[in-house]
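User: Write out your own:

AI:
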Amino acid sequence: MSETISGGHLVAKALKAEGVDVIYTLCGGHIIDIYDGCVDEGIEVIDVRHEQVAAHAADGYARITGKPGCAVVTAGPGTTDAVTGVANAFRAESPMLLIGGQGALSQHKMGSLQDLPHVDMMTPITKFAATVPSTERVADIVSMAFRECYNGAPGPSFLEIPRDVLDAKVPIEKARIPTPGRYRASTRQQGDPEAIERLADLLAHAEKPCILLGSQVWTCRATDSAIDFVRSLNVPAYMNGSGRGTLAPGDPHHYQLSRRYAFTEADLIIIVGTPFDFRMGYGKRLSPTAKVVQIDLDYRTVGKNRDIDLGIVGDAGLILSAAAQAATGRIENGAARRKEWLEELRNVETQAYEKRLPRQLSDSSPIDPYRLVHEINEFLTEDTIYIGDGGDIVTFSGQVVQPKSPGHWMDPGPLGTLGVGMAFAMAAKQARREKEVLCLFGDGAFSLTGWDFETMVRFDLPFIGVIGNNSSMNQIRYGQAAKYGQDRARVGNTLGDIRYGDFAKLLGGHGEEVRDPAEIRPALERARQSGKPSLINVWVDPEVYAPGTMNQTMYK
């Protein structure tokens, strides 16, 4: 008799072929055969307390490892609970696969338990969404979904697998099981050679160029190419999103606080892997007289929302390497004459830093948020992965916290999703056990998914959690005050005064309460030494707001 295999075991084989070594899940009767297959294939199963966390963790795993993440949830409410995580990955260009359960095909349209039109709901927020129609095709369609994750800019895929398709067994020779490494091609594109030459020419003639290294620099693992580009051509570099950390703090080409000045004064601005969305003022923050070059994995992003002088579609690393080589081969590439431009920007940086420094060192009580993020920045090591999850408090951190290595910054991305922190910390620590993980939460953000702190304890995933607690959703509160006046500033945005340090202890972790700014660093050190999941609840001043909060266009 021929050997048979179930649909769930075929899922696990397909995951293994893609290099997936962990799934994030919340159990349900529709999906348990996948667990059985994962046990046989040596794939770890991390079960969480909410499906949103499972999807966010799969997103986080992809960002950290460069491999696609995978979340597995049950049908109906299990899948709808995961929608936010998939949507966040979609906007952040993160490759992940969500597998959702579904009622049996034999009960199609009969009103089976938790039956919903999952594919219809997921299609607008994924690169690929489908139903697996037969057991023989399970592994085939899983590999197809992974392939679509990498079509252009990365993103999520969704599959629903009916219960009878998943549970059924078929002769193994009838099942198509794609061979690892042989069912999808390299997606690295070098870009149009003529466009590369045009970029080299622009660089050679530019007096005041600058470059913004966005998330796709990390997506493409283009760190070395980006560093070589800025150093060989003497170009000041700014970083955002997952591109933070490409250059270490202190590098002569690392700039942060002078970006607005540079975008106003530069004659050549190169934008790499960052769309002209709200974070870039839809492109309006760039000098109208500067030459603007945009490099992106997705053709649809290039030239969207503002005109550009040159657009190049392809892999950031290959394009930057080719452009550097083409420009360096010229007699005069402009590098030598840019010394004064870099010094000009460094003076702007120094002035901005010195202006803010008194607040970063403030001993005021309640604690100035600038003091909190300053202490965190001083505490980070080259092996600390930093995660931001919140509104106003994380806006403060974006000005001050500088990761010391590539791939060591995580934030939600352009969807602005609160509640990613616990899941990102989970994925980062599980995937990189040797790394320290520190997550700064707003108290509002933490409360969305904070119960999965228990998951961190259960799976022995130590991390340092810091809550900037102002008992408010302060970013929204500012907008309400600005729009409707102080007498209506506290409607729908005020939280309780919660001792989250005690919450951490209740769930088996390390917890502390901090009200004195001098105690922030000692508390961080104790959390590091505890070897446990930890929460340091820092009570910050609720009456101060980050400049980024006050400058949001939605409030004007």
